[in-house]
Design a protein that fits this description.
Number of domains: 3
Number of strands: 24
CATH class of the largest domain: Mainly Beta
CATH topology of the largest domain: RNA Polymerase Alpha Subunit, Chain A, domain 2
CATH architecture of the largest domain: Beta Complex
Structural class: mainly beta
Distance between the termini: 153 Å
Number of helices: 4
Helix content: 10-25%
Shape: elongated
Strand content: over 45%
């Protein structure tokens, strides 16, 4: 038998060798590296009727190993740690977080997970009805007070862990401004809870109607001098009467806390020349009380030339 000729198909053999060399260069050039990542911790198969308590960890640290090119292509969500909670029951539980519980793309190995165990607390889910209490911001105009408040819905159902729901006595709303109000305030506001561990069974908003009414208490501050303001040059003014009585209105504390010096009466003479005028009296009221009436509401002012 004749021995095979070693130089047969020389072109194909040379091409095969070239491909082998290129493949070796490609593989050997992509070195294996390790990298540390902080990745999301997902909770799967959460059972019905169970609530997680406290602040469970949302991230864990993992070390992964693989080709440099493969690791550089990783994007958000490519590496995720997963815990199966289908067997969860009320109480404090420890869960292992092993490399096998980390989802990674093909060709990448998980070397380590930190922490390797996670402590989670669970409670039974309960619900109950609680009233909705609007939160008010500011104060009505001086002399006015907040009257009746109506909320629709008046009660809502709160849901959450047993211990947290037991502490809830009311649902609150976002602040409703009554600052400077003199009439009824209507608003639609979000309902919520101070404790973030609980929630509304049916999320929604409340329609709130707040009556703003005149204060129930009045008090008369007598004989407050009337100041004549902005009198033109070379003019003289005389007022009749020279003092007025001012009736304050508001809450008992606000009205009784006002001193006579807090009540200032004046008449504006801007642009007026010589002559007789009937002018309205303006009163600057105290901060916590309003002006119900001024007695008299107008006064007679005689303006004459200063040369007379």
């Amino acid at each position: 038998m004749r021995a095979p000729w070693p130089f047969g198909h020389l072109g194909l053999k040379a091409l095969s060798v070239a491909f082998a060399v290129l493949l070796w260069l490609f593989v050997s050039g992509d070195e294996t590296v390790e990298r540390g990542l902080r990745v999301p911790l997902e909770f799967q198969q959460f059972p019905e009727g169970i609530e997680m308590t406290g602040e469970p960890p949302s991230l864990v640290d993992v070390r992964i190993r693989g080709a440099s090119a493969a690791l550089s292509r990783l994007g958000p969500g490519d590496v995720v740690a997963q815990l199966d909670l289908k067997a969860a029951r009320p109480g404090r539980r420890l869960y292992q977080v092993s490399p096998e519980q980390v989802r990674v793309p093909f060709g990448i190995q998980v070397v380590q997970v930190t922490p390797s165990t996670v402590a989670l607390g669970f409670e039974t889910t309960i619900s109950k009805q609680v009233p909705v209490v609007p939160s008010l911001d500011g104060d009505p105009s001086p002399g006015y007070v907040v009257g009746s408040i109506k909320v629709d819905p008046a009660v809502v159902e709160v849901v959450g862990p047993q211990s947290s729901v037991a502490r809830v006595t009311e649902a609150v709303t976002e602040p409703i401004s009554v600052g400077g109000a003199r009439s009824t305030v209507l608003d639609a506001v979000t309902i919520g809870f101070v404790d973030s561990a609980v929630r509304l069974k049916v999320p929604g908003r409340a329609q709130v109607r707040i009556e703003v009414i005149p204060g129930p208490v009045e008090r008369t501050v007598r004989l407050r001098p009337v100041h004549l303001l902005n009198l033109g040059s070379n003019l003289v003014a005389r007022a009749t009467p020279t003092a007025v009585d001012v009736v304050l209105r508001g809450t008992r504390d606000g009205v009784n806390g006002a001193s006579p010096e807090d009540v200032s009466a004046s008449v504006d003479l801007s642009g007026l020349g010589a002559g007789d005028y009937t002018l309205p009296v303006r009163v600057d009221s105290p901060q916590r009380a309003g002006v119900a009436r001024i007695l008299p509401a107008t006064i007679q002012v005689n303006i004459s030339s200063g040369k007379d």
